[in-house]
């Protein structure tokens, strides 16, 4: 085997799920690995030493960017094309590449399976963690045993923050309202961490979260800073590396923090931590027990009251945070 192509186009958390699979491919074969990804995530892969070349899929400027993308994609011949996305779009990219074999996940959707030479067998029970399912695909190309390896990551060192006290990051924002613990509960948690532990709080998010991040920081007090929209993705990961703890909802920053070994506490609502929780720190998930409706895996709450999040007490999360600090 001389070269492998990996396809995982998005999203932030899903790319983190693919990192152990890429590490396993590198360990088991030692060959160069190229990765097809959307442009906004390419800077993250530049910090992954296992990736030799990044090929950017032009999602937003497809008509203008298709032929340059195709030339880059077909520049090399691949012994294996490993589609870890499992969608029609990613399977189509796999078909365009010059590969001897194409493999994809057992759960592939939208007819993607028609483009693969092989898939792992489907699990008879519930779907397993996304990291383990990616490893199933790797085993088709480079068989091996053991747990998913820790990824290799090399992020630039950020500006040092020498303010006194434990440094705790909050990642309270996701794309689903059914994942987001109420901001007033994050504010209460932040005030308690400041008062009882002398913590410095750093609120993380994207540019679209800046206003809410500023409100949250103001409600916590002078030891809180709003950093929403103030870092690029590698800068976000560099910042996370310097934190003593991350308190987070089910989000991309959670998965990257877990991949880097940053201590975390993860609040879960609609989604299932067995499937998309922090892979190495699943015991540090906090969720409301006793609700028959969770996990519902829905972007909207059928009950209409978001009970899985609104009834999750600050004290529960605070005690879990103390155990990590």
Termini, distance in Å?
A: 46 Å
Give the beta-strand count.
13
Instruction: Assign a percent range to the helix content.
Output: 25-40%
How would you classify the helix and strand content by structural class? alpha/beta
Strand content: 5-15%
> Sheet bearing the most strands, described?
6 strands, parallel
Total helical segments: 12
Mean pLDDT: 96
Q: What is the H-and-E element order?
A: EHEHEHEEHEEHEHEHEHEHEHEHH
- Morphology: globular
What radius of gyration results from the CA coordinates? Answer: 20 Å
Strand order of the largest sheet: 10-9-8-11-12-13
Unreliable spans are none
Question: What does this molecule look like?
Answer:
The protein is α/β, with parallel strands linked by helices and 325 residues long. The protein contains 12 helices and 13 strands. A 6-stranded parallel β-sheet has the order 10-9-8-11-12-13, with helices on both faces. Strands 3-2-1-5-7 form a 5-stranded parallel β-sheet, with helices on both faces. Strand 1, helix 1 and strand 2 form a beta-alpha-beta unit. Helix 1 (12-29) packs parallel to helix 5 (130-141). It is globular and about 60 Å long. The model has no long low-confidence stretch (mean pLDDT 96).
List keywords for this structure.
single chain, 325 residues, six-stranded parallel beta sheet, five-stranded parallel beta sheet
Short description:
With 325 residues, the protein is α/β, with parallel strands linked by helices.
